[in-house]
């Protein structure tokens, strides 16, 4: 191949030649030889018009063209021209068949170089370079590094959405079609090529055409150097690879998703090739088998060696059967990691068929099911326990889906869900679920959601690793009602034991009051006017009688069954009088409270009942020694931050042989007619059901028995919050007060006292009088009502008054409040009361 200074045609990847002054061909390259069909010797010296009949400069009508205009105004150089240009001309090879071709010409010194771009139909291939392929001409570009302009072929322009015509312009022309980040990458590649650091360029990026459509293109270029080994030009192409880039990205995403699925589900896919008898393993399979991912391809025997000896033939057997019968398979087995760890897996296989329907390969999955199998075994074990103890069990996951349930002991097909079995609301369900997740397990005994029509013992456990809640529920309504009857009977027994003491105190109160009133009458008849001392005696006697009846009512009232959180120390403090009231004066009762502030989860009504049982047993034990003695009741926290309530006495103690029987039903070591043996049995039963503990020692430092009650508790702040004291004085001056009470004397007393404080009062003693006052047109600021009246209740009275005066302030008074009235939202003052108690009450 002939060369000229500054240019080597053999390096040009397009058909090219050089012309002399007579427009004859003096240099050619291999691509032109292939395109034209001529040999090199035939081309050298040939007139250009043999190949390009319409090439500028050919004589016509006796004239020689000085040049013709090419697209975009770039002239096609004629002889002697120093300008470059391009145009479409007819090309005629040795076969004589003309074809349209794009030419590009360039003048250097005294030579004109011509480059040919065959059309797509030509299907030419250029000397090992891929700028022209059998798919036709690609988008061609050329950049001479000593200028800022690049030649863009017509196919290049069409790719960017322009007219199908060649164009010469600056590098910024195609940079405006790229993202800013890609421009930086593009410039770096071109800079490395133009500086000679690399001989070829090949990279892909995203461009946006003239119409705003995004495309992925591949850019390739070859570096050409001059005689001084300096880069003089880059010749390259740009190819639309959007489709293949999309498929590649989609394949990568699918592969990434598949790897994610395999990681999350601890599984992997495999493919068995019958031709070579080997497996392909994904990275997930390597993980299942306890190996690091590699290109290792095991055969059937090598894969089977991972299975336990008794199961090594199962894989081969299933694969051979699948190939023979063309059907998939599924089995479970156990494999052994190289580390020695045993893992349970499940295997799934499906056949792949060729175009003729024959089995071409087996594709399948291996999945680690060790944890799933453990959960399943646990469920089966719990189901067996369920069947044994006849208690329903529900397994519910974090998403509230029932994983497993067993209601077989009930035999009721309609009760197929937890909500059908327990009549609680979704709010109750979510609250129990939240508490269980934070604590791990909760137990609730005698829990009810419908005012005790149905009562349940409930245990909920959260298995964090599996994300499963295990609900164990038992309907104990019948047993609960029997126990309530037993509790009432026990209380009546306790009441019988203490009735003598209580009646003695009440008689004393009545005696003091009666004596003081008679003395008051006698002195008044004798003309003595200083009777304030006798009035004070009557008031004191009434106060004592009030205290006795309050405690007696509290003791005989039906105990609340619902388990609640309360302060046990405060509960004991509030009932100290009741403890002392039950004991004779010969027995000293001492309270010792450590600075403990905590809450326990327990039936509040049963807490004091338990202590009363123990204290009364201590009383009987002291009486056995002569009747005088001491009982100590103390409260402390132990090392495990549990609340301990200790009851010690100076009685006869408990013999060692009776310690193990002390809580047995109907067992009693007392004298005949002194005990029925059910008190301590009920104490033990109640403590056990509500996760408490009870311990007993036969002797202590006082000489008698020592009982210890232990409760799990939630500690509060060491210093309870201090609330500001109420401001002194009753501020009801100029307020209108309406009073309702069927006892005229109580209504008059309240009205007289309030008027002395500056209020305006009106009172009624029945419903008719109340309605008359409401219809009178008088406005009222405060309404004070009795809770129980002959012709209406306090609740009904409040509703009548609130309908007339929605903003009125409500107070209530009562001689007896049942447990069910605990939902009453207004403050209650218990009868009887004095003026000071009334004033304190109204200052709330």
Automatic annotation (TrEMBL):
Q: What is this protein called?
A: histidine kinase
Q: Which SMART domains match?
A: HATPase_c (SM00387), HisKA (SM00388), REC (SM00448)
PTM annotation (4-aspartylphosphate): residues: 786
PROSITE patterns attached here?
Answer: HIS_KIN, PAS, RESPONSE_REGULATORY
Keyword Thylakoid listed = no
InterPro entries, sorted: CheY-like_superfamily, HATPase_C_sf, HATPase_dom, His_kinase_dom, HisK_dim/P_dom, HisK_dim/P_sf, PAS, PAS-like_dom_sf
Lineage, top-rank taxon, reads Bacteria
Residues annotated as domain Response regulatory? 736-844
What taxonomic lineage is listed for the species of origin?
Answer: Bacteria, Pseudomonadati, Pseudomonadota, Gammaproteobacteria, Alteromonadales
Q: Where is this region: Disordered?
A: 59-83
Keywords tagged on the record: Kinase, Phosphoprotein, Transferase
Reactions the enzyme catalyzes: ATP + protein L-histidine = ADP + protein N-phospho-L-histidine
